[in-house]
């Protein structure tokens, strides 16, 4: 965010956001997750603590430039057990909280409201399984031991059969290569291709690995989302390639940006110096940059207008 041009009118909001994010990170620790700091995209895992069955929800948040002074956060709640009237009830309670506290930082109140909702959930609720941890990495023991896992990021192994070899009746999609980011001798480079079938995903990977430099990368992290019109749903998956949790974070970014029919691969050449959590920031920034450059984020504005739960206040309370 430091390199972006800040509108003077939003400088106060940005400072409020920075202070709020720092406070939430301190309060919630590893439950708080920075998805894309430059785009002000965050996520927090919320659970009903010691209640049984243990329920978990993931609150995804995008902070607009004029939050908190004039606009609410854009948000989405991911929880497999949350459907229909219950989802509407929870969404209405968050919107009511926002209207009651217009112009104020609202995220802590939202998180605790969702937690209270989980605690009050009937005991018959379905337990949400958490995905298994896979693919240890050289930096695993530095900061990944307690990284939050989100159910929406579970690898889609049930579709593995779609990757079996078929007749070569599809062309390799065009592959774009983005600008590199270098930090402490580690280099990150994104690659992007439009895909509409799992077979094309496999073809893109094979084509990339024909490049000796890409094949020699320490990690080639990827994620993709394919929209299935007949089922009105997404076929999506990700791969860490040894960089634990990186694939899931990358897929999470694609979900929040609401991109479709696209695959992003981020190559990392490790330079010998541990980057800690900064490596995830570079991976997602690389991905976001190439998605913007290639025009795949155009649908985001549409989705936030139609799908995100926001409510503009009729009047603004004096602070």
TrEMBL record:
Pfam family membership, one: Impact_N
A GO term from the CC aspect: cytoplasm
Main localization category: cytoplasm
Keyword field: Cytoplasm, Repressor, Stress response, Translation regulation
Cell membrane in keyword set: no
Location(s), subcellular: Cytoplasm
Top-level taxon of the source organism: Eukaryota
Coiled-coil parts of chain: none
Compositionally skewed regions (Basic residues) per UniProt: 308-319
Statement: the UniProt record of this protein carries the keyword Ubl conjugation: no
GO BP terms in the entry: GCN2-mediated signaling; regulation of translational initiation
Domain RWD: 19-121
Stretch list, region Disordered: 300-319
Quaternary organization: Interacts with GCN1; prevents the interaction of GCN1 with EIF2AK4/GCN2 and inhibits EIF2AK4/GCN2 kinase activity. Interaction with RPL39; this interaction occurs in a GCN1-independent manner. Associates with ribosomes; this interaction occurs in a GCN1-independent manner. Associates with actin; this interaction occurs in a GCN1-independent manner.
Family, similarity comment: Belongs to the IMPACT family.
Protein name as annotated: RWD domain-containing protein
Taxonomic lineage: Eukaryota, Metazoa, Chordata, Craniata, Vertebrata
């Amino acid at each position: 965010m430091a390199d972006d041009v800040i509108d003077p009118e939003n400088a106060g909001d940005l400072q409020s956001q920075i202070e709020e994010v720092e406070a939430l990170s301190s309060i919630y620790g590893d439950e708080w997750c920075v998805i894309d700091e430059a785009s002000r995209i965050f996520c927090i895992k919320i659970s009903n603590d010691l209640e049984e069955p243990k329920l978990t929800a993931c609150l995804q948040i995008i902070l607009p430039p004029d939050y908190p002074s004039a606009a609410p956060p854009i948000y989405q709640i991911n929880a497999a057990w949350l459907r229909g009237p219950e989802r509407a009830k929870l969404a209405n309670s968050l919107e009511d909280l926002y209207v009651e506290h217009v112009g104020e930082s609202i995220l802590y109140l939202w998180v605790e409201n969702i937690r209270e909702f989980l605690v009050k959930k009937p005991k018959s609720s379905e337990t949400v399984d958490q995905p298994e941890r896979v693919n240890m990495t050289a930096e695993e023991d530095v900061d990944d031991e307690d990284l939050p896992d989100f159910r929406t990021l579970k690898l889609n192994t049930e579709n593995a059969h779609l990757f079996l070899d078929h007749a070569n009746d599809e062309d390799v999609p065009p592959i774009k290569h983005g600008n590199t980011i270098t930090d402490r001798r580690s280099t990150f480079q994104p690659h992007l291709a439009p895909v509409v079938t799992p077979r094309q995903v496999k073809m893109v990977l094979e084509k990339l690995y024909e490049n000796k430099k890409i094949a020699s990368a320490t990690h080639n992290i990827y994620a993709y989302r394919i929209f299935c019109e007949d089922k009105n749903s997404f076929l999506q998956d990700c791969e860490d390639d040894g960089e634990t949790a990186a694939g899931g974070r990358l897929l999470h970014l694609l979900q929040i940006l609401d991109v479709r029919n696209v695959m992003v691969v981020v190559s990392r050449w490790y330079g010998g110096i541990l980057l800690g959590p900064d490596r995830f920031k570079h991976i997602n920034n690389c991905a976001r940059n190439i998605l913007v450059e290639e025009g795949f984020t155009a649908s985001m504005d549409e989705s936030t207008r139609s799908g995100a739960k926001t409510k503009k206040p009729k009047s603004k309370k004096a602070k």
